[in-house]
Structure formats: C-alpha cells, structure tokens
# Entry
Amino acid sequence: MTRENLADASATLESAADATGDGDAAERLESLADQLDSLATRDRDPDHGRLARIENALNDLEDSDVTEQVRSAHESVVAFRETVEGV
# Structure
C-alpha cells in the first residue's frame, strides 16, 4: 500500500538534498526522505508521534537554501497526518 503524500514528500526531500549546498542539511534531508519512503510503503500507517518528529525535523530545515522544497514536503506530511486517526 502506498501513501501518496508521504511518497511525494520523500521525492521532494531527495531533490532538496541534491540541490542544497550544505552537506549537513543534505544528510538530514536524505535521512528524512528515506524514512518517509519507508513509511509510504509499509503495511501500517505511521503514528502521530513519528509524523510529529518528522515535522519537527522539517521545521529545523526550513531556513536552508532549499526552503521551498522543505515547505512543500512538510505540507505533504501534514496532509497525510490529517488522514491518520487518533490525536
């Protein structure tokens, strides 16, 4: 089962990692992209806590040279999170 919003966020962050000139930010972006890709294809929906941690990491990266891509990925995560039951 694929979760389109999470897959979109993953692809956006991969692109941002390739585009940034900051090596540390690139590593963080790649890590988040990998996490989102994994969450997009696993059998169960991720919980709110996991998604909140990803959102916090994205907030930390919004002041980078790839701000628009990070914001776009963040919006995709928020859109998916709104469909998750719970909190």
About this structure: The mean pLDDT is 93. The helical segments are 4-19, 23-41, 48-61, 67-81. Residues 5 and 76 are 5 Å apart (CA to CA). The first helix runs from residue 4 to 19.
